[in-house]
Specification:
This protein is mainly alpha-helical. It is built from 13 helices and no strands.
Length: 284
């Protein structure tokens, strides 16, 4: 039995989720014989139509898995979409000679894509980066029976079951309980809420207002002295410095020597003398 075509908007989770779920639920489940025939046609003949039918007939399975991750606060349509990517990867790699059904093989790929999506989007700051932390992240939620924090005995039991240190369980529980906070105060907030914004209570240890003012004044004074010193130079020395240090395409000693009809060594001497005058003026 071939899978019939559906309207495009019904086969995209984000367009109309209810219509999508209904559409994929109406696609017939493949018999073991039909699945094997399609898998062999894809594996040996690279038949893309066979791949399409294998994917379409298993979309309902992706929906079932994606809905088990609804507690992470992410859009169900996005979870399904990521799971579909995993399903397509599984179909591409499926070997019918292994003697297992596609659904058993695909579950790893579907969950892997959903897990990666959740870890990328659940928090601004990543809560799990290593393989052990990822395993703990997804298992700890299922072990917590409520919103209350784990007791010492419960944390130890989870650590023993997952084969990790109890401190890792406690740290991950803290990460799960945290939330993202905007640095700035929301636009529609009033002054009474100002204390909640990190911009009002986080201290920048690397910034001192007095030092900032001092540095700004020093730069202003230095620039003023530099301009004054440049104005005191003769026109030729100013031109040499400008073209040797300030121009985007810097002139060579020989180019300036040809222009002024002197040797390159003389241009170097003029440049050196001009720089000494500038340094002396700035240091005064």
């Amino acid at each position: 039995m071939e899978v019939s075509l559906r309207p495009v908007d019904q086969m995209v989770p984000g367009a109309n989720l209810a219509a999508y779920v209904h559409a994929v639920g109406s696609i017939p489940i493949l018999s073991p014989e039909r699945e094997r025939d399609l898998a062999e046609d894809l594996y040996y003949n690279d038949n893309l139509d066979a791949a399409r039918e294998l994917v379409m007939s298993h979309l309902r399975f992706v929906v079932h898995i994606a809905r088990s991750y609804s507690g992470y606060g992410l859009a169900e349509a996005d979870l399904i979409q990521e799971g579909n990517v995993g399903l397509m990867k599984a179909v591409k790699r499926f070997n019918p000679e292994k003697g297992v059904r596609l659904v058993s093989f695909a579950v790893h790929w579907i969950k892997a894509e959903i897990h990666e999506y959740i870890l990328r989007n659940w928090r601004i700051v990543k809560v799990a980066t290593t393989k052990a932390q990822r395993k703990l992240f997804f298992n700890l939620r299922s072990h917590k029976k409520g919103l209350a924090w784990l007791t010492a005995d419960e944390a130890q039991a989870v650590a023993n079951e997952l084969g990790v240190d109890v401190r890792e369980v406690q740290r991950m529980e803290g990460r799960l309980a945290s939330r993202d906070v905007a640095f700035d105060l929301p636009v529609d907030s009033d002054d009474e809420d100002a204390w909640q914004a990190p911009q009002y209570y986080l201290e920048d240890a690397g910034s001192d207002p007095a030092l900032n003012v001092e540095e700004g004044q020093w730069q202003e004074n230095t620039q003023a002295q530099l301009h004054s010193a440049l104005a005191d130079l003769d026109e030729r020395s100013r031109d040499i410095l400008a073209r040797r240090w300030l121009a985007e395409e810097k002139a060579t000693l020989h180019e300036l020597a040809d222009q002024y009809g002197v040797s390159a060594e003389r241009i170097r001497q003029l440049e050196t003398n001009a720089m000494k005058k500038l340094r002396a003026a700035i240091a005064a």
